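Notes to self after the call with IL:
- keep both proteins in one doc
- input above output, always
- annotate only the second one for now

Protein 1:
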Amino acid sequence: MNADYVPKRSVKHEVGTDNFKKIKIEAKVEQIKEREENDTSDPRSRQCPYLDTINRNVLDFDFEKLCSISLSNNNVYACLVCGKYFQGRGIKSHAYTHSVEMSHHVFINLNTFKFYCLPDNYQVIDSSLDDIKYVLNPTFTQEQISQLDRNTKYSRAYDGTHYLPGIVGLNNIKANDYSNVVLQALVNVTPLRDYFMREENYANIKVAPGDIMINLVKRFGELTRKLWNPRNFKAHVSPHEMLQAVVKCSKKKFQITQQSDPIDFLSWLLNSLHITLNGTKSHNSSIIYKTFQGQMKIYTRKIAPMNDEDAGQVLINPEDYLEKVEEKPFLYLSVDLPSPPLFRDELKESIIPQVPLMQILTKFDGVTSQEYKTYKENFIKKYELIRLPRYLVMCFRRFTKNVFYLEKNPTIVNFSVKNVDLKDLLSEENKKNNPNTVYDLIANIVHDGDPNKGTYRVHILQKGTGTWYEMQDLHVIDVLPQMITLSEAYIQIWEQRTNNENNNQNFDQK
């Protein structure tokens, strides 16, 4: 044998088994990409004879992207003739079989947004398909986003109905009206909407491997863009994908088939989005805290017991009965309503109690104290607002749950939809730190009916036209501002007016 002979070693032996598998997978991916790029050179790509078979009336991209046969979410295509989802496009795949059996030839890949003709298996390139791609994945430029609040033009859906972007009905799948009203309100909060309209704002967020909470962020962004899409095929949107993410991420605490409390859902959603966006306790750590977080001081004092047996505890531990002060952030204010009257009037008709908004907000003036009872101890608490948020969320505590049943307080809160000034709730020192204290209402969530079997609806202000709209699932109608103040408001979102807006308002009044 030749002394210079060197035995050949395989590539697998040189790089190791694990690295060899990775190299093999990467090579396959490169081959697939190269093959797809070469598909465009097919002369049939720009002259597909089946484009007239596409039926845009049946296309619905709001539902989960799963194959209708295998229920897999890998490599799913949508048939543009019947609207159904199928997996794969190779021979023996479900999409291929469907195209042969039903003579449906045009498909779109729901991940790459590329169009293909089956069973011939060539890529279709035609500018007339851009509207389908846009409905599947709406995109907005920074300039388009800046003009959203000034829009006064109605958009025309493919089915002929007219709608205003942002004022779009959400489908109630079974009992998800509690989440629909919250989602409708949040997508009309300008900074939150603007952030989620641009997918690149949260595309590179670092999450732990296998963390499903990132799906909540992505689905909320997709829903926001669909609700503000001016080129929809229909004048309503189904929140199916968003709610699927909510069910999984909340570990079935919030479900599609069972009604929940909107304020619990709102609180969970905001905190979940904040944590997933790598938010910390800092005020500017996420778009959620920048938009909704305020700061307050809580003064707590333990009440001394009245009986002689426990009176000695005051002498033994006097520090427990001194007033304690702590600063805490908040995302919404929990506002107490006065108790409704127990008796009817002379005409045997129920009295509808009413209370001014500023009267019940005195709870947060730092002076008014309230007693809170627990099983063993009683406390007196005072709340003082330190920093007002850009968007103030209020929840009127209408529901009281005891051992036997859930009771609803029918008290109507009297408020103005504009120019609500919270200056009187602030101390002189806090007034200097909060120059903008005037708020305008932008969303009002209402509960109707019995506490256990009621329904929810929401009033939204369309800023471009200045018109109020009432939305209950798919039903969207315009309403007068005077009708909003007569409703049993449950959750409200108020927008802080800046100095420029105040100056413009004063100039208009002059």
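Protein 2 (the one to annotate):
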Amino acid sequence: MKAEIKKKEISPDLEKNILKLSKSAAKNCKTDKEKAEFLKIELDEVNGGPWNVIVGKKFGGVVTYIPDHFIYFSIKGTDHLIYSTRNMKGKQ
């Protein structure tokens, strides 16, 4: 199962981990919602949250994310948009 990377700004280690988790989700989860929930829980636990995960066939959007924490890819025709907004609080 190969992932088609569409856009990314992410460290190689984090990319490898996300793709591994996403391939596992593709095999073990029945719905896109289950895949997104699985990925969010895993990423929040392993890499610290919050992670935002969108999985589906038809969606669009504009997101703000922290540097080196964004990836957009497709596995078997299903798109995955994954990014983190950790520590994006404005200065007071």
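Annotation: The first strand starts at residue 3 and ends at 10. The two ends are 46 Å apart (CA to CA).
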